[in-house]
Write a structure and sequence with these properties.
It contains twelve helices and ten strands. Strand 9 and strand 10 form a beta hairpin.
């Protein structure tokens, strides 16, 4: 199942210069494969250049395997320009932009991407953005960053880099309020809040990881990146629609139809009051169910 970027639940990180990992990613049921040019590639000019040279071939092989592709670029402008020139092609749908400093930073990248789209014969606006805020100065510009470009489909707050600047621990307890502010800014701008309320690094304890993903969805996240294939089915399940959630939403909508015919604006389901916000939420669940359920 191929999903448009605005419906992605899971993005699996794969180093752009690792053919073995890229080949393995073809059999992983992630909604997108995110080819990484940033942290998973050594920070030498040669390593960055070699990884950049792999993008076109890797993206094409993934797309031919039925995968949708995102590319995470580097933040320093000299690297970012070369990354973008290598990544903008028909086989890439999204660019992930780390360490965005301000709305003007997004607009600068947007201008370059537009030139690259024209150069390779793509329609202007084809490439979408996932924007990551990871600095203290950018945090106070979340609202303007989130609304700075129509290309932005997702907003993230990078825990590790942000916590380093802030002098705090990147723990769930410490980051919770900060990430909630990011979620609010994303929702106000009409873009998807992506990420976790906690850390994704402990992929070996999948039970603990799933519990954290569930808390993340409850807080308002819509999807997240994965650093190991074992995380993908959990993220897809939790950010998708599970059976009990689908059944409850269907019951709400069935009762809403009856109430509407009876001229009632509110009614009860399973002993709990239901009114417009609850109905709207149930409608959203059923929409997601049409996207994610296989039966």
């Amino acid at each position: 199942m191929t999903l448009a970027p605005e419906y992605w639940r899971s993005l699996l990180f794969v180093p752009a210069n690792n053919p073995r990992f890229i080949d393995k990613a073809k059999s992983v049921e992630a909604d997108a494969i995110q080819l990484d040019l940033e942290d998973s590639v050594y920070h030498t000019d040669k390593d960055k250049e070699d990884a950049r040279a792999c993008i076109a071939t890797a993206a094409k092989s993934l797309r031919l395997a039925g995968k949708t592709v995102s590319v995470r670029i580097n933040q320093p402008l000299d690297l970012a320009v070369r990354d973008i020139e290598a990544a903008v092609c028909e086989d890439v749908s999204v660019l992930a932009l780390p360490k965005i400093a301000a709305a003007a930073h997004v607009k600068l990248i947007e201008a370059l991407v537009e030139k690259c789209e024209i150069k390779v014969g793509m329609a202007v606006g084809t490439i979408q953005f996932i924007v990551a805020v990871e600095t203290l100065s950018a945090f106070y510009q979340l609202r303007s960053i989130a609304s700075s470009s129509a290309r932005i489909m997702g907003l993230m707050l990078g825990s590790e880099d942000f916590a380093w600047e802030c002098g705090c621990e990147p723990s769930e307890e410490v980051m919770r309020g900060l990430k909630q502010q990011m979620i609010v800014a994303a929702r106000e701008a009409g873009v998807r809040p992506l990420g976790y309320i906690g850390s994704l690094s402990n992929f070996r304890n999948l039970e603990e990881f799933e519990s954290m993903v569930r808390r993340s969805r409850a807080f308002g996240f819509d999807g997240a990146t994965c650093i190991h294939p074992a995380q993908v089915p959990i993220v897809n399940r939790v950010f998708g629609i599970e059976e009990d959630e689908f059944a409850h939403a269907k019951k709400v909508m069935d009762n809403a139809d009856i109430a509407r015919r009876e001229g009632k604006a509110a009614f009860s389901v399973d002993g709990k009051m239901v009114d417009k916000p609850i109905i709207d939420r149930a409608e959203r669940v059923l929409l997601r169910a049409r996207l994610y359920r296989t039966s």
